[in-house]
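quick q for whoever's on today - can somebody do inverse folding on this one?? i tried earlier but teh output was garbage lol. tokens:
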């Protein structure tokens, strides 16, 4: 195939060679992979060794299928729709079919047809693929079409594949406009989505969860709050905890992401209270504040406070608020003016006092009887702890587009944030006693508590009970041991000879890291395709040939983890690679908005520029770890320095280990900064033994 020759001329030559008339009715198409049509715009992407076939041109195929889907013969119609669903993935064909008003015919089949089986599934699949190219706006869909799609979701007798596709269509409609969101929200009830969530079909369950998440993200704050309240009434958390998180099937990436979003949306309901300062003139808020004092001290008062004079009552209240740990005891509302944590801290304190009154009274009274400097201030600790929990759980932060880090125990408990607070505030008191802290140590204690919480959360406990057991076992002495161990790992002797040895060892260890990176590229990685509009199910695999000369890549099916190199049809010779781009420089990141939600995707994006600096292979790494290994490996292939943070970490670990091994014999021996002086040569060398005399 001469790339300099116009495609029309190439087709004419091929048709002439095979005595085929009307060369304009034919086109070239890849034999392997996605079988894309070759056009003038994408012909530059053809690789050496690619096999092409002569086939009917996209416009002829579009015309034929447009007629086929209108056939009265159901077999012809079904076959045409099946082929349409397959070909619609190709952008050239999709454009031709849409130009012939093909979507109108698809709408007609859906709106007027009564079929709920295979034919309808192919029709909806074709519609989804055509809409994927963004030639037509979702807002142009007719009310009759939408109602029909909704009816498939709400019917019980429809084929599961039709319901999955219908849920996907609605999920794509929801974010595009307020009108479509309102329509779907009204027509597809939460009850219906919960019914779909309870099926055994994992794909149907996933699509139902996707639509639920899309509705939650598109809703206003008030609507979202109402929806979450309703879901709480229906015990959705317990259902997810039991049937999805702890099901026999492993949790897929997409479901993990949706559970993360559901957790994030739920926790963000606390944001309004977190950002609202206390209003000292609000009767309701003042009553909540007074209830804290009354729960702790009213029972122990010998006489009711109402019998005292105003001055005496005020003095008594101030004293009790001081015992509660408020800094400003004459006007405790001032302590809650800081937002965040705002009123959320007050809510947590009230929840603790009402739901665990014994623990609350014990905390307050125990500290009231301690010496002044050793008492743990309940209110001040609660305010700071609420802020720490908000930071750890990312309350008030937008959802990430790709994150999957949810806490299984979140779904095992209603009032998760408040219950977590109840455990952690008792942990503050316990740690305070273990550290024998005074008021000056307040920040130090809360720092240790933050560490206890984050270390325990990183273990992903499955229930709050397990979290409580583990966080209490991680006492202050354990934290000190862990810190000491980590410090020993990080510490390095800074004597000049050791630094010189370190520099001498470095090239050898850098070469070791280079070899490891190339081995990782040879093993290969599974990458996920993410479009600008929505998460994709499509996967592709990329790996380096064992001789480090060619990058092989290609699409793979779900469940394939390490495809053989022969099954990957696409190739890029390493010698053709020109440049590595990362982050915002990548072509597939330039259209992305600058919102916080895309920040994590930007940090995982990289591209290879190859041939004449026109073509790019775009990647989005599954994790930051994979991003570091791939960018390092590609830099090695390009003959450049490895620049990722992982290189420095690995080098530090290897240097530290190597140095410790080399210095084992010098344990407990101090190494001088400068080498000892070399003594002067002796005045004569007569002390040397002369062997020659002995031999004689």
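ok took a stab at it. sequence:
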């Amino acid at each position: 195939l001469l790339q300099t020759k116009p495609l029309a001329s190439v087709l004419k030559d091929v048709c002439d060679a095979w005595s085929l008339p009307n060369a304009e009715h034919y086109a070239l198409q890849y034999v392997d992979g996605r079988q894309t049509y070759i056009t003038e715009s994408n012909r530059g992407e053809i690789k050496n060794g690619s096999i092409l076939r002569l086939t009917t041109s996209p416009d002829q195929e579009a015309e034929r299928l447009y007629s086929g889907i209108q056939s009265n013969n159901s077999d012809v119609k079904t076959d045409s729709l099946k082929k349409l669903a397959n070909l619609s993935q190709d952008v050239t064909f999709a454009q031709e079919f849409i130009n012939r008003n093909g979507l109108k015919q698809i709408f007609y089949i859906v709106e007027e047809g009564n079929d709920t089986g295979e034919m309808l599934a192919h029709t909806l699949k074709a519609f989804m693929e055509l809409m994927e190219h963004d030639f037509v706006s979702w807002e142009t869909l007719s009310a009759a079409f939408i109602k029909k799609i909704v009816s498939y979701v709400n019917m019980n007798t429809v084929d599961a594949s039709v319901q999955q596709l219908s849920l996907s269509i609605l999920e794509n409609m929801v974010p595009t406009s307020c009108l479509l969101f309102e329509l779907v929200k009204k027509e597809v009830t939460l009850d219906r989505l919960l019914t779909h969530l309870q099926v055994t079909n994992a794909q149907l369950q996933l699509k139902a969860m996707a639509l639920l998440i899309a509705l939650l993200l598109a809703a206003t704050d008030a609507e979202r709050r109402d929806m979450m309240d309703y879901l709480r009434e229906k015990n959705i958390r317990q259902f997810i905890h039991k049937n999805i998180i702890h099901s026999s099937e492993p949790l897929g990436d997409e479901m993990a992401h949706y559970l993360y979003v559901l957790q994030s949306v739920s926790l963000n309901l606390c944001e309004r209270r977190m950002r609202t300062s206390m209003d000292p003139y609000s009767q309701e808020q003042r009553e909540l504040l007074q209830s804290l004092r009354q729960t702790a001290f009213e029972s122990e008062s010998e006489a009711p406070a109402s019998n005292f004079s105003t001055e005496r009552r005020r003095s008594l209240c101030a004293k009790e608020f001081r015992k509660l740990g408020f800094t400003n005891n004459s006007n405790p509302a001032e302590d809650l003016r800081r937002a965040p944590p705002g009123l959320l801290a007050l809510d947590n304190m009230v929840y603790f006092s009402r739901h665990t009154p014994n623990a609350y009274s014990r905390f307050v009274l125990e500290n009231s009887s301690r010496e002044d400097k050793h008492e743990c201030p309940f209110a001040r600790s609660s305010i700071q702890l609420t802020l720490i929990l908000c930071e750890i759980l990312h309350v008030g932060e937008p959802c990430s587009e790709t994150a999957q880090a949810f806490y299984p125990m979140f779904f095992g408990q209603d009032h998760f944030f408040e219950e977590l607070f109840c455990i952690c505030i008792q942990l503050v008191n316990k740690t305070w006693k273990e550290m024998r802290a005074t008021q000056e140590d307040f920040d130090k204690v809360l720092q240790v508590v933050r560490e206890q919480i984050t270390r325990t959360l990183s273990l992903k406990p499955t229930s709050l009970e397990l979290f409580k057991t583990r966080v209490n076992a991680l006492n202050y002495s354990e934290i000190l041991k862990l810190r000491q161990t980590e410090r020993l790992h990080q510490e390095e002797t800074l004597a000049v000879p050791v630094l010189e040895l370190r520099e001498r060892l470095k090239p050898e260890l850098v070469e070791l890291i280079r070899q490891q990176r190339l081995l990782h590229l040879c093993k290969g990685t599974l990458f996920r395709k993410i479009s600008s509009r929505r998460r994709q199910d499509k996967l592709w695999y990329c790996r380096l040939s064992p001789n480090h000369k060619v990058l092989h890549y290609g699409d793979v099916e779900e469940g394939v983890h390490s495809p053989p190199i022969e099954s990957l049809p696409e190739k890029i010779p390493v010698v053709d690679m020109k440049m590595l781009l990362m982050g915002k420089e990548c072509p597939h990141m330039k259209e992305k908005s600058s919102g916080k939600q895309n920040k994590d995707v930007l940090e995982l994006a990289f591209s290879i520029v190859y041939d004449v600096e026109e073509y790019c292979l775009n990647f989005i790494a599954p994790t930051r770890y994979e991003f570091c290994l791939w960018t390092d490996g590609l830099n090695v292939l390009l003959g450049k320095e490895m620049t990722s943070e992982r290189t420095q970490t690995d080098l530090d670990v290897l240097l530290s280990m190597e140095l410790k091994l080399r210095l084992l014999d010098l344990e407990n021996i101090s190494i001088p900064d400068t080498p000892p002086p070399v003594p002067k040569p002796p005045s004569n060398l007569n002390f040397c033994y002369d062997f020659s005399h002995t031999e004689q």
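fwiw The first helix runs from residue 7 to 17. also The chain has a mean pLDDT of 86. so keep that in mind when u check it
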